[in-house]
Design the sequence.
């Protein structure tokens, strides 16, 4: 009886440990602050993702081409500044850079709200604003994600990335649905005022960070930074796992992510006829699927990243095609089935984002993480191509036919990368502590020894 009771207690302890393991990274103070800053950022971003396309459609009499143009302009700064942002993140204090980007986002949101309140907003101002906003975003992401291995032990990197993705997805549910309702009942001006207030909370959270400076390259100056950019590019090309994730990201951002930037608003307004509130609900449902996937990844912390990522992109293409096909269904089915399929789209999206970031920070040394992460900005800038092409093709051939075509490209691209990149396919990341030898990693251990500069410290769990 005693043995049975002990076995029962041990099983219960394992279950409880597994539940808490899903949120283990939140034990670390500075990670919590990064997570809170990301929560504010994500809530404002998702509210903006609903309100901005609706504003463009309102200003342009439902022009798909102009909507595609604005979404393209939004990502152009990442093409121009993205890789240099990574160099800046490696050469300068990452906390200071992150504080500057949070202030930039907040002040730009205030300016946008003032223009709407005064009735001065014109289409060219929207283009100028999204370029400025995209410029702050170019520096925000490499700075934020480069900090994760600094504040977490190595075995929690995938867990931390997934939890950051989970904030995106919770805020997608709240921000998308909330912004749709706010836009429906009090107008777009009220929505952008709320967005400015939301961004202010992120400024406070990031100011509270206490992170030791990271190991920086020995040489300073523009010439050293230029040569550092070339060094980072050479490193990315040599490493098959980084090369592979950049290739699959190219397909994903160019042909997959345009569904959110361009196709979702067009489906809501032109195909499904569900209006602003319906658009918010669509993206909110993707957030529900994404949240489940993010928590699953945080708990399981998969290691076969090079195998999962291309299959995920191919599956994403299948989901886009099924979603589009379901919009041809008659009556209630033509709305209920597409909404249900948005769950799968959201789940596949967040799986890709969290695992691709985890792979890159695990494959790069600390002093080079900013540059390696910034190379994804070249792929993200292809959202400009995808958004512009999607808008023009949707105007010429229809929203549904164009989205099906983009889904086919995702399937083909995912399978080609899977077959043609064996080094990427074979990559295994660090798993959870449960998957490691018991002597390899302790709960308070920092990142792997080979990547820890002597001056660096890690905030412990509390």
Sequence:
């Amino acid at each position: 009886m005693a043995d049975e009771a002990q076995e029962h207690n041990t099983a219960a302890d394992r279950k409880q440990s597994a539940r808490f393991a899903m949120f283990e990274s939140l034990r670390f103070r500075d990670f919590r602050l990064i997570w809170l800053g990301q929560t504010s950022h994500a809530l404002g971003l998702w509210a903006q993702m609903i309100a901005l396309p609706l504003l463009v459609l309102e200003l342009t009499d439902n022009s798909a081409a102009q909507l595609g143009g604005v979404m393209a302009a939004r990502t152009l700064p990442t093409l121009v500044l993205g890789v240099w942002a990574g160099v800046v993140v490696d050469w300068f204090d990452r906390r200071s850079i992150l504080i500057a980007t949070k202030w930039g986002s907040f002040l730009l949101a205030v300016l946008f709200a003032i223009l709407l309140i005064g009735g001065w907003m014109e289409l060219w101002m929207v283009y100028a604003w999204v370029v400025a906003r995209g410029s702050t975003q170019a520096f925000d992401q490499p700075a934020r994600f480069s900090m994760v291995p600094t504040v977490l032990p190595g075995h929690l990197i995938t867990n931390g990335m997934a939890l950051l993705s989970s904030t995106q997805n919770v805020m997608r549910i709240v921000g998308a649905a909330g912004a749709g309702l706010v836009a429906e009942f009090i107008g777009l001006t009220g929505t952008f005022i709320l967005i400015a207030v939301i961004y202010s909370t992120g400024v406070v959270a990031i100011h509270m960070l206490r992170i030791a400076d990271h190991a920086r390259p020995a040489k300073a100056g523009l010439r050293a930074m230029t040569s550092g950019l070339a060094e980072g590019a050479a490193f990315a090309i040599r490493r098959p796992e980084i090369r592979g994730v950049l290739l699959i990201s190219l397909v994903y951002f160019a042909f997959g992510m345009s569904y959110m930037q361009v196709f979702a608003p067009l489906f809501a307004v032109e195909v499904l006829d569900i209006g602003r509130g319906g658009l918010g609900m669509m993206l909110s449902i993707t957030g529900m699927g994404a949240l489940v996937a993010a928590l699953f990844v945080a708990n399981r912390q998969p290691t076969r990243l090079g195998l999962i990522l291309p299959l995920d992109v191919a599956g994403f293409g299948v989901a886009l095609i099924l979603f589009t096909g379901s919009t041809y269904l008659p009556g209630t089915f033509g709305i209920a089935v597409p909404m249900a399929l948005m769950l799968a789209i959201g789940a596949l999206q967040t799986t890709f984002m969290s695992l691709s970031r985890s792979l890159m920070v695990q494959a790069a040394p600390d002093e080079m993480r900013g540059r390696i992460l910034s190379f994804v900005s070249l792929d993200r800038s292809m959202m400009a191509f995808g958004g512009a092409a999607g808008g023009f093709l949707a105007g010429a051939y229809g929203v549904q036919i164009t989205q099906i075509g983009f889904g086919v490209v995702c399937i083909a691209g995912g399978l080609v990368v899977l077959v043609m990149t064996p080094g990427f396919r074979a990559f295994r990341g660090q798993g959870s502590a449960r998957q490691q030898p018991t002597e390899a990693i302790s709960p308070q251990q920092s990142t792997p020894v080979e990547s820890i500069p002597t001056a660096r410290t890690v905030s412990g769990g509390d």
